[in-house]
Each structure stands twice: as C-alpha cells, then as structure tokens.
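Data card: per-record layout.
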Amino acid sequence: MGTPQFSVPGLQALHQNGHEIALVVTQPDRPKGRGRHITPSPVKQTALELGYQVIQPPSVKTADFVDQIKSLKPDFQVVIAYGKILPEKVLVLPRIGTINIHASLLPRLRGAAPIQWAVINGDTETGVCSMLMDKGMDTGDVLLSAKEAIDPADTAGTLHDRLAVAGAQILIDTLSAYAENTIQPIPQNHDLATYAPMLTKDDGLINWNKSAKALGNFIRGVTPWPGAYTFWGDKRLKIFRSTPVSTDISEPPGTVLAGFPGELRVATDGGLLSILEIQGASGKRLATKEYLRGHPIPPGAVLS
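The structure for this 304-residue chain is written out next.
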C-alpha cells in the first residue's frame, strides 16, 4: 500500500528480491499539474509496469475492501506513504503483521511530513524505520532503523530521495529478519514523541520575523514542496536557495539591504538572509544576479 514517489523504491525492492506481491493498493488517480490532467500515482505506474494487480479503493473501511484483502491470506501488509488511515479491522488481516516504513527515527517526527520538518527544524540527523502498525498515528513498535545525516545543503527533496532508498533496504532487511526469527519489536517511548504535521501550499510563506538561520532551514525544508515564497507589493517571489549571515543589523525584518551588485540581502529578526535563487510569478528559476538584471529590487524595499 503506497502512493507517492517515496513508496516506489520499496515496491521495486520487493519485486527485485523475489517477494510475492499479491496486490498493490494505491490512492485514486488525481488531477495534477497546470493542466490538471488526471494522473495515476507513481506507485500505480510502477506496479503496472512490473505486471501487478492494482486497486484504488475510494475507502479502506468498506466490507468489500476488507473481504478482498482477507481473501488473499497475506503474510504481511507493507504500507509506505499510502496516505490513508487504515482501520484496525484492516491492520489485523495479515498472518504476521502490517509493516510501515516511516521517514524518521521514531518516536521523533510522527506524522505526515517528517522529511520536511527534519530540515525545517535544523536537525543534523534523521533516518528511516520499520514499525508494526497499530491504531495510533505512528505509535507502533519499532522493528529496524537506519540513521541518515542531513547535510547543510540538503533540501527536503534531496533528503527525500536518499530516505526512499534507505527505506526500501530497511523493508527488505525487516522481512529477512522475520523469516529468520531474529527481530525483536521495540516499544516506543511516547514521552519522547514529536510531530510533523502535514504542510499545505500556504505554509510556504516566509515569516521574516524569524532568524536568518531558521529561515535558511525553512527554505530548504519546503523545497521543492510547498516551496518558499514572499511578496514584494503584489509580486509573488519564490525563493529556492539562500545563505544565512550572522550580523548585527538595525533595519526591520523583511527590508532589502544595500549590497554588492547582483546581491539580494534581506533583514531578518536575527542576521540577514542572502537570497541565491529566485523566481518571479511568471518566469523561470534564476540565480539572483540574473533575476535582478531584469527585475531590480531596490534597497529599502520591504518583503512580506
């Protein structure tokens, strides 16, 4: 059971390692892109290419869905970013258990967006783990885990790609350990739990009243989605890369500061943020120097 690109390496790993995949469950096709064309999920596309049966139930709570899974008599259900909450009557269907691959080191960053929040929070390390699913939100016993360093240049996108591959390996290792009876589920310490709530498009708006360091992490954490943006008057500017600079400034947060030609330096609540890549409302992603050549933003302008 999976839907986005993050789920694909796990599906491919199951296939390549000879596991019998009785059924692939993914979310219904959705409109995507500027043209809003109805598009199958990455998991559906991959599953069909590999020759597997795919179903896309509007609901996982119906008796028909439960009966269909039960009829397969599965040993395991594997869930990777499926995007729907499975009821207990579904979780208990497999002979051995329902395994989830989660992109954090639980109990840290439970929830829908652990990769983005790890970067936004300025963490230097995260990881992936396999867990036995229960009726709680990422509260089940942990089976195996692997740590992953977060580089200062990482975005949520680059970290996502590495964790997707690491998660696929953890999945295969988990199934092997079960087969050899060498795995010991470890209960989570719920007192140490932190949360990574789902992000929306509106969550990309830059709040200049934060420190330059926090904003640098924020921009990396929301790239590529939902994307960081700010406004200069009624012009929407999307920010892709930046460098925080620790320095004393007196200008109000959001104020564009004087700098060398081709520089865009913005005051924050602690230091300044040097913008390295930017995109206007109707244009392409450009190095700031190139963008400012055609769209100058003068010192004293205020971004909001």
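Known properties of this structure: The mean pLDDT is 96. The first strand starts at residue 24 and ends at 25.

See the next section for split statistics.
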